[in-house]
Each structure stands twice: as C-alpha cells, then as structure tokens.
Amino acid sequence: MAGPDINPTPQSAEAVLTERKRRIFSVKTLVLLVLSVAIAYFLIGKLDLGRSWDIIRNANLLLIAASCLVYFTSNFFKALRFRVMLSGAGIPFLDLYSITSYHNFFNQIMPARTGELTFVYYLKKIGNIDVSKGLHILVVTRIFDFIVISAFFICSIILFFGANTSIALVVLGVVFLAVSVITLFNLKWLVIWSGRLFHAATARLGIQERPLAAKILGKIDVVVDEFSSFKAGRLAPMLALTSMLTWGALYFLFYLTIRSFGIEIGFIQSVAGSTGGVLTNVLPINSFGSFGTLEAGWTGGFLLVGMSEHDAIFTGFGYHVISFFASALIALVCAIAMKIRK
C-alpha cells in the first residue's frame, strides 16, 4: 500500500524533512520523472487541439467553482477522520484542517508519495504529536482509503455494466477489498512480527549492540508500541463513516469536473471510470505533480466505461489542473489564517 516506510522511523520534524529530501533526490525519482514526461507527451499528442480549445472556451465556470468548494469539503471530512484518531490530543480543528490542507497540497506536487511525510512533519510541528503516531495515522487512513475505493469500484461497475459486468474486474475488486480489511484488523500483529523478525535478524548476526542497529531497534520498538495500542474495532465505525464521506465528496468532485467541460456522463459511470486515476494517484509511482501517470490511469478507466479517447485524456488533464490549483488555494488560505491567528 502507499505510505511512508515505518523502518527506520524519523523521530523529529527535522528528521522527517531530511527523510523526505532523501526520497525526492533519488534514482527512483529521476526514473519516474522521465516516465511521467514520456506519458504526458504521448497523451497530449493524441489531443485534438481545436476541440480542446472549444471545450475550454465553453467550460462552465460555475461548476468549476462548485468543484473547488467540494474539494474544500473533502478536506473537511479528511480532517474529521484524522480527529477521530487524535481524540484527546486537544488540537484545534483549524490547525488540523490546515495540516490536512498542507498534506494534500504537497501530495499533489511531491513525487512517489513523499508528500505523505508532510502530514507527519506538520502534525509534529503544529500539534506536537509524536512522529510514530503520525505514521500510524497515515497507514490506517490509507488502508481505509483502499477499503472504500474498492467498495465504490465494485458497486459502480456492477451498477453500470449490469449483466455484462466483467467477472475478472469484480474478483479483482473483491480481492483488493478483502486484503485491505484483513490488513486493517491484523495491522498490529504485522508490525509486531516485523519488529520481532528484525530483532531476531540482528541477534543472529550479532550486531544488535552496534550503534546504528541499536538506534533502529529503539525506533522499531516505539513504532510497535504505537501500532499495538490501536483498537481497530472501537474506531472502525467512525473511520469508515468519515472515509465514506471523504471519498463521496471526491467522487462528486470528479463528476462535477467532467460535467463542467460539457461532457455528458452519469454519476455511476464517473465513479467507475475515475477509479483508474485514483489508484495511480495513491500508489507511489507518480513524479512531480503526478502529471502523466494520473492521466494515464484516468484515461484507461474512462475508456473502459465508454468515454471517447479525446474526452478521457482531456478531462484527466482538466481535473488535474483544477485539483492542483484548488489544493494550492486552500493551503494558502490556511497558511494566512494560521499566521493571522498567531
């Protein structure tokens, strides 16, 4: 699943920034950048420039504004979800909403999901929450994301295709859903056994007393303690509800964006088609800004549900631009509000 590694764990806000820089300036990032540029160039080459210009000129500005408002609402539900896991931490909701908005914006622009670490950084810097707790929250919420995405995907393709639904797609969605649910309710045991395995490996190699190994073992123990305290059954209902609200808003955003370009589409068709873009965006395969990879997944998904190639490619880029500027605007407003409040 997408998300930050938990071994070893950075223990301060500054260490989180150092870790993010290390991940950004890597060979993997360069490879993903080249791949993204190539995909974007290929897709743009398939656009009819005349038709694209007509769509832009006739775009419904009111629906675009509504899309930005829905984006704001999705951030609100995400902040509520984080609040569920941070109950008792005493973080003001404005601070938590700002942290969520910064997290979303940096996830838009940073490659290979390195923007995820922004949440951990600001949660530590603004909310004074331990880094291990921030990483735990990210992992759990990402699992819930996969559960909800799987459920939306299964329901939408069955409703859209009816009797012609591909059994392979349904099976794929069910397997994805089942694995996510099993992972959620066995997460602490996965972390505990991973920690024990690392302890056993270092002991077997006789390096557990070395400074680096001892430091890593200490950090692993902190993470294991954090994950071991998670009560999946107690928090699951509220996390499920806020996750459903979050993704309901996001899928409605996709639908409004497509309709704002004058393209006729049903909501169920929109949900089924946009899942391709959603999956490519949550997996750590994107480069800076996610341009290219997101559009490729979006195009594939909407071709699957019968949209024309041009419209699928154009709406992919169109949604991406709108969501990018909406996330930037919301993050900027939050930064100003935080500065005024201080």
How would you summarize what this structure contains?
The chain has 342 residues and is mainly α.
Instruction: Compute the average pLDDT.
Output: 82
User: What percentage of the residues does DSSP assign to strands (E)?
Assistant: under 5%
**Strand count:** 0
Along the chain, the helix and strand elements come as HHHHHHHHHHHHHH
The quaternary structure here is: single chain
Rg from Cα: 21 Å
Number of helices: 14
The residue fraction in helices comes out at over 70%
CA(first)-CA(last) distance: 37 Å
Q: Into how many domains do the coordinates divide?
A: 1
Low-confidence segments, ≥5 residues, pLDDT <50?
1-9
Indicate the structural class: mainly alpha
Biggest sheet features: none
* Shape designation: globular
3D architecture notes:
The protein has one domain (13-341). Mean pLDDT is 82; it is low at 1-9. It has 342 residues and is mostly helical. The chain is globular and about 65 Å long. The longest helix is centred in the C-terminal third of the chain and has 33 residues, at 309-341. Helix content is 79%, strand content 0%.
Kindly list the characteristics that best describe this protein.
about 350 residues, mainly alpha, 14 helices, about 80% helix, about 0% strand, disordered N terminus
